[in-house]
Amino acid sequence: MNTKQEKLEAFGRLLDIMDDLREKCPWDQKQTLESLRHLTLEETYELSDAILQNDLQEIKKELGDVLLHLVFYAKIGSEKESFDIADVINSLNEKLIFRHPHIYGDTKVKDEEEVKQNWEKLKLKEGNKSILGGVPKSLPSLVKAYRIQDKVKGIGFEFHDAEDAWKKVDEEIQEFHAETDLDKKEQELGDVFFSLINYARISGINPDSALERTNLKFISRFQKMEGLAEEQDLKLADMSLEEMDVLWEKAKKLS
Questions:
Q1: Tell me, which fold does domain 134-205 have in CATH?
Q2: CB neighbours (10 Å) of residue 3?
Q3: Of 47, 57, 122, 197, which one has the greatest count of Cβ atoms within 10 A?
Q4: What does the record list as coiled-coil region(s) (predicted)?
Q5: What is the DSSP letter of 236?
């Protein structure tokens, strides 16, 4: 592994390269905070994919892409004379020190849960008007639900255990089945999803990761099913559901 000095030198070289690109590259010159935004989201999802695949070399590559974007935003901020990368890092350093009084102060904590509770209380002291004020509006709905639940847990708004949370799931499913109005049924389905995400979270399962693993598993099996059909000179679109189900079961055995 690299020494601290080597890491600092590598970061300094990145800053120099960013300066060069901003000055000399036509594409980099045109970028703005707004134009980079959707590209940053794409890079973040690519990093997420690499993490789910546990591909360490790909994770390294995608971390570099994300880091480039962070440095790029800071460069634009310096051009606007608003902030630079040092301001970004110093602000982060101060926040981390303030939110970890059990490390940099006299506060005592017994476990991870107390750390999270203190974290949310300290955020309110920083001027946040609501525990939920820091939940990004643009988060995907499933991830947003998880973050909302995790944040309110920080002040004790939480079921006692997973069994109590599952009772809520049962209750919401019954209300969903009983509703006949389509608009209200949609609302009830949202409640089902929210309660199921909550149950998963309390059980120690990340629902977003769980769903994505299922997505990947389905894609893999379906593509194997397509391959089996092609081997038999068959077209899935011309097959009955029962015939496709036979291929599906074979594809599952190949997974």
A1: Helix Hairpins (1.10.287)
A2: 8
A3: 197
A4: none
A5: G
